[in-house]
Design a protein that fits this description.
Length: 210
Amino acid sequence: MEHKKTYYAKELKTPHGDLIIEGPVAQEILAKLEFHEDLVAFRPPAQQHQALIGIAGLPEGRIIIARYKNMVVGYATYLYPDPLERWSEGNIENLIELGAIEVIPKFRGCGVGKHLLIVSMMDDAMEDYITITTEYYWHWDLKGTGLNVWEYRKVMEKMMNAGGLEWYATDDPEISSHPANCLMARIGKRVDNESIQKFDRLRFMNRFMY
């Protein structure tokens, strides 16, 4: 499968200054930008910056960023699912995962996450993909936001809906381990029926185990 990437950008005005939401950002541009020290959700900022530069260089990898002047203050990553995850088992070459989305505390509540999703889907190439995201409540910043699990889930679901991702049922054990966890997906307009059927089989693997 050919992985086309077309760059898009959008300005977002916030009370803390204007942001540029843009991407997919090329590896060499990402390497030159500063990376905010509050981007700590997944690993220390310097390491996460390097990880994003690595993803940007993958054929299917896409990094969409929120940029304040020369500083990355938020990002979303798209790449093939981790080889250890269920979602890679079907070897569906047009299935990619929204792996991480993070925004620094200062700019939360300004619609940054929503706009990262909107800009992600501006690229027509996304119509060739099944885009999935797996949401686990233990990754959520409940302490920092002051929200309970269900309030956070509602906010997160609304944000994902902005990118056209919808809730999908699955018997995946990790997702099924807590009712707030969920699988969300967006099936592009040009995705063929065979890929959709493979995705459905991945969602419900346990029913075939008897």
